[in-house]
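User: Hi! I'm working on a homework problem where we have to compare a predicted structure to a textbook description. Could you give me the structure for the chain below?
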Amino acid sequence: MLVDTYGRVATDLRVSLTDRCNLRCTYCMPEEGLQWLGKPELLTDEEIVRLVGIAVTRLGVTEVRFTGGEPLLRRGLVDLVRRCAALAPRPRLSLTTNGIGLARTAGALAEAGLDRVNVSLDTLRPEVFKTLTRRDRHQDVLDGLAAAHAAGLTPVKVNTVLMPGLNEDEAPELLAWALAEGYELRFIEQMPLDAQHGWTREGMITAGDVLASLRTRFRLSPEGDRERGSAPAERWLVDGGPGRVGVIGSVTRPFCAACDRTRLTADGQVRTCLFATEESDLRSALRSGADDEEIARRWRLAMWGKKAGSGLDDPAFLQPTRPMSAIGG
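Assistant: Happy to help. Predicted C-alpha cells:
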C-alpha cells in the first residue's frame, strides 16, 4: 500500500488529465491564461490507464477522481473512464469539473462507469459569474449540473469559493438553491494556489465566516457522531436534515493528520500534497521501460516521504511553483 511515515494510507488518487481550462477564474489564473503543457509532456491515454491500474491493483487505491485544469477538455475522456471502470477491483470513479460541456457528456460518462461529479459554481448571479470567471457561461454550468443529476451521477456536489467583495454574501442563497435542486453544496476556503501568487490569509473568507453566514438563515448541526476522518469537508445537517452542507477549511481547519490522497499530474508527476514543493517523476519511468513493480516501488517511495502537513501555518511557508490548474484538485 501507499503508506507514509506517519501511518497514513493513501487510497484516494487524484488524476489531472490536462492543465488547460476554458475559464479564467480570478483566484486561479490570469486573464490571458498560462503556458500550457505541450502534448509530448502529457501522459497518453495508455499511460494514464496503466498508472491507474498499478494504483488500483498493486497499491490499494480504491477511489479515482479525474481533475484538471478542466478534464472535459481531454479528448477520449469517456473511453478513459470506461477503461478504468473495467479494472479489477473496480475503483469508485468521480470527476471534478467546471460543468461547461457536461450537459452533452453526462449521459455518456455515466454509461461508461463514472459514479459521480463535483461541479464548481461560485455564484447564482450571472453577472458575478462573468466577473469571477471572465467568461459568460453561467447557464452552461447550470445545464451541466441538471444533466449530471438526470444521468444519475449522484450525489452531485457543488464546490463554491467565496471571495471578498464579489460573492461573500451568497452563502445562504446558494445553500437554499442547492437543497431545492437536490445538490450537495460544499464551501471551500480559497487556497494559496493561484498562478498570480496574490493570495493573502487576511483577504480570504474563512470556514468560520461561511458557517456564521449560513446560520443567519439555517440551523446547522453536526452530522451525527461521525468522525471527520480523511474527508476534507466538515458536514452539517441543515435544519435537522436530511439536507446537508459541507465546509472545507483547508487553511484554517486542516485535515492533514488523516489525509488519504495521492496525486498524479497531467505530465506524470506524483505529488504527495497540494502544497508539496517536490514531485516524483513516473512519466520517465514509464517511457524508459520500467515494469509495473518498479513503478509501484517508486510510487511507494514517494509517498513514504510525505510531510506531516501542508505547512500553511509555518511562517516560512512557500507557495508551490505550480498553480492549482497545473496540479489537479
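For your comparison, note the following. The chain is about 30% helix and 15% strand. The first strand starts at residue 2 and ends at 3. Good luck with the assignment!
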